[in-house]
Amino acid sequence: MSGVFGIMARMRKILFVLLIALNIFSGRVLAQDATESANATGSAVATESAIVATDPEPKADLTQPTPEVKGKLARLIEEHPVGALSWNNFLRYFMERAVKQGVPANTLVLIILFPLAVTLVAASRHLIGIRGTGILTPALLAVAFLATGVWAGVILFGLTLAVTIVSRSLLKNFRLQYLPRVALLLWFVSAGVLSVMFVAGEWGYDNLTSIGIFPILILMLLAETFIDLQSGRSAGEARTLIVQTVGLAIITSLILGWEMVQRVVILAPEIIFFGLAVIDIFMGKYTGLRLSEYLLFGRVVKDDEEE
Predict the structure, then answer these.
(1) Are 30 and 65 in contact (CB under 8 A)?
(2) Is residue 50 exposed (0-12), middle (13-18) or buried (19+ Cβ within 10 Å)?
(3) What pTM was estimated for this model as a whole?
(4) Could you tell me which of 160, 168, 200, 285 has the fewest CB atoms within 10 Å of its CB?
(5) What is the tens place of the pLDDT at every residue in 123-164?
(6) H or E element that contains 40
(7) For the chain, which residues score pLDDT lower than 70?
(8) The domain containing residue 198 runs over which residues?
(9) Does a structural domain hold residue 306?
């Protein structure tokens, strides 16, 4: 049974990645359709201008190919032409050609940034000693925070986690099988998130009402993953893992959303992309103490070496 659950967990994580990719490419199609319809008639342009004048300024979201983000990154590529193809600029060269062919620049940046996210998570676990829930969960949570905004994402994730904890305790009395129990658990989470959206709309919290569906789905599904941590662990250990994972996801999302990092990815993608592979190789060869272990046992090891 544990093998079956492991396969199901891996399939669910693969589904997360596919959902993110689907969100990016479907958003691209919708943006193109909106542009074509706006250019079709003058009245459409006037209506769109009136909406922009009355609505709040849209939030820059790297995970969505909106004209604001897409144009900003595309302009950066156009302002720094790569020139002729050579051995040290081939990745940037093909990025520029892809953008000219209509591929959203933010999609390419995210594809290169995702290995950075997982490398940061691996380094925090292997070198520092932060205990997280694997490597993919913090990385996906970081992407979700990047899409929602850090604090809005933390609030929404905390609410979904609270609803999951309460509903899981209620469902214990029903003695349901695993899959129906998980389905009903996610039903409660959906009801809770729906209520939050209603309240946010009534109170005018634009940071919550403007969140897309796929970051919300990621947060909802990851909440159930965090609840599973309590199986076979004490409450204190489970809370520690959750706090460390969320903290790591926040730091990673801030790094991914840093404009300087995105600029380096566009202007020197070869250094970032292949440099991360080299870092992973050297990091995998390291067999010494983690930073947390060194702080705890470094003095003992030093005393043994002196003796």
Answers:
(1) no
(2) exposed
(3) 0.68
(4) 285
(5) 998 888 887 777 888 888 888 888 888 888 888 888 888 888
(6) helix 2-40
(7) 1-71, 207, 230-232, 298-307
(8) 2-301
(9) no
